[in-house]
Amino acid sequence: MVEGTEAAPAAGTRVSAVITEQTPRGYLSAAIGSAVAAGADEIVVVRAVPSPVLEWAGRFRDIPCVELPTGRKQALGVETATGDVVAFLDDDDLWEPTKVERIRARFAASPDLVYHDHAQTAIDASGRPAAATHPEFAGRSPERFSGMDRDAVWTLFDRIWPGNSSSTSVRRAWALTGTGALRETAWAADAFWLVAALLSDRGMELSPERLTRLRLHGENMSNPREVDAASFRRRHAEASARFAAAYSSLARLAADRRGPTAPLSRFLAQQAETFEFQQRLEVGANARSAAARYLRRGAGRHRAGLWGTALIALASPAAGRTLLYRAGRQRSRLG
């Protein structure tokens, strides 16, 4: 599918908000309210059990989806929405009031633009600004994307791409061609859209504008600071298994399009191996052999912390698990 060559008036570009909820956590009403305040032309909520949100009655379409993975909910949202552009929002995050105006303007100005992502502001569970200092949140420079070599994949994913579904917007006509692959990927939906855009050779933009408030709280893997070691291990093992499968799917997608030795294909395969190593270490399933394989294949050479964890896990898987927990706490530190 190829869009027209002339830019459409911004006012004529409709933006649909697709809000996904995994399990009810009490944040959905605020997310809908932020999409309303931002001026979304349409709001589609995809969740397991539709139910009234009284303060926003009649302002959104409530679509049931019992499948848990974010990617499958997003795929249904893209297929249900009617706007020219789909902007995603997780139920626990918020948009800034200027979000839709900026997204509408960018897609209207560039007919070939299919993917836009931007920076976020961290907030705590109550919605107050939070000082998240970990490089995953504070060490990103999306403004560097326009001039970078797109084969520098490690730099793109680790230092430039802001990530997070709540900051991702896609041109719907283009996105519709990828919903099947998105369903197969299941998790890591934000990475899926980035990879799909890179493989498309279409227009992409990464912006330093902070148009989303990213909520860090005890119910997501981004903020395990109030979780004990045993609970962290269970959650981290589950998340690592999900992402290992997701990145394996993305690696196959990239290999089919670019070949298995392309930088993007190799990076995604290494990411899958990284998550597989962490999952096997957390559950204690052949942890030493998993660490040896991880080191032998070189998947962790770009991340000194995980490389060191694997070395220690060769001698003591329990010590390796302790390092994963400490790293998780450091990652989630606020203030």
Gyration radius over CA: 20 Å
Structural class: alpha/beta
Supply the number of structural domains. 2
Average pLDDT score: 90
* Straight-line distance between termini: 46 Å
Output the CATH class name of the largest domain: Alpha Beta
CATH superfamily of the largest domain: Spore Coat Polysaccharide Biosynthesis Protein SpsA, Chain A
CATH-derived topology of the largest domain: Spore Coat Polysaccharide Biosynthesis Protein SpsA, Chain A
Q: What fraction, in percent, of the residue positions are helical?
A: 40-55%
Q: Overview of this structure, please?
A:
The chain is built from 13 helices and eight strands. By secondary structure, it is α/β, with parallel strands linked by helices. The chain folds into two domains: 12-215, Spore Coat Polysaccharide Biosynthesis Protein SpsA, Chain A (Alpha-Beta Complex), CATH 3.90.550; 229-331, no CATH class. The protein has an eight-stranded mixed sheet with strand order 3-2-1-4-7-6-8-5. Helix 9 runs antiparallel to helix 10. The longest helix has 30 residues, at 229-258.
What does this entry show, briefly?
The chain is of the alpha/beta class.
Question: Which SSEs are present, and which pair or pack?
Answer:
Blueprint: E1 15-20, H1 28-38, E2 42-47, E3 61-64, H2 70-80, E4 85-90, E5 94-95, H3 99-109, E6 113-123, H4 135-138, H5 153-160, E7 168-171, H6 172-175, H7 179-185, H8 189-200, E8 203-215, H9 229-258, H10 263-283, H11 287-297, H12 304-315, H13 317-331
Parallel strand pairs: 1-2, 1-4, 2-3, 6-8
Antiparallel strand pairs: 4-7, 5-8, 6-7
Helix pairs in contact: 2-7, 9-10, 10-11, 11-12, 12-13
